[in-house]
Structure prediction request, 350 residues.
Amino acid sequence: MRPCVQRLAGALPVEVAHNDREEPASNPHHGLVETSPAERLYDAAARCSADPYWANSTRLIETATQALVDGLDSPGLRELAAASHSARIRKLRRLLLDALDELSIPRPEASPGQHVSGTRYARLPTDTLRFEIKPSGEVLIYVNDLEITEAGAGMGMHPFNLFVPSNQLVATAEPRHVVVARCTCGESGCGSTEARITRIGSVVHWDWYVDPPLGHGMSFEAAQYDAEVERIGNDRSWQRPVDSVTRLVIEAVDRERWFIPGGLELSWAGVDHRDPQQFLVALFVKDEQFQVFLRFPIGDQAPEQLADDVLRTLRQPPRTWRATFHSLTVGRRGRPSMAGWRWRSEDPWG
Prediction:
């Protein structure tokens, strides 16, 4: 046995030969996924091509060694398996790509999941995913037990950003771009980590955009992914009573978009920072560039009751509201066209 094979296989007498007909084997990381040696080699090349830090000499050499043990064989693969750990990474990466060419395995593509269209070649779902919501209202994301939001933009998103009015992490065949981490100042506009989430068959892929926490994308078994995303989406442990009101209002408005009068958009709902005893609903008059505010006493009523009061008011004609407004054009006097006699300006210029 060649020393390069013995490094991985130990003392077992393995005969390395080219296997023209590759039989699928169970993925060593996830027993539910059937993969072939060629697919496993492609997976290693895909992660290597995207992440120079993933592709250390030991990992590349062991990848080639395992491929030989699995029945693949080519000059480039044998040279890579026998290479010195002190060899330059660039040379080892080139040998891996040469081996793909020799074995008629496509080179990795920059598509979602690095999937090669019309083939089974893509990143394999060998990664695991777990979420946690901190009491402070921050969604932590653990990939292979590594917390990645801190490694990315700095901190996790607030649950409202990810789960209200709907769960943004749900994977579909249509790629979805989701901001999963934000700057430590708390604003995603200051800095963010964005994932492109795509479902391809029974696999969910995350590919990174802007401030990636890892050099390569991640791939998950869809069943495990769906279960974890559903679990965290249904977690209400982070909600204070007033958060429940906000969620109920936002979900209802999203579900029944028609009930807010034309020209008005819901932009925010929550505790009034100037008066914590008031629940504030902020609306935007896009065409006229006004902000409109409705306030409701919080009192000791149940969240469901307060949410009902808010929604009942929003369903009424705006002219009947007791509202205030603010012009987004400095110095402009005037009122929104839908304003009633009980509307008052909050602008210092009147």
Notes: The chain has three domains: 3-114, 129-233, 241-345. Confidence is low (pLDDT under 50) at residues 1-32. The longest strand covers residues 275-285. The chain is about 30% helix and 25% strand.
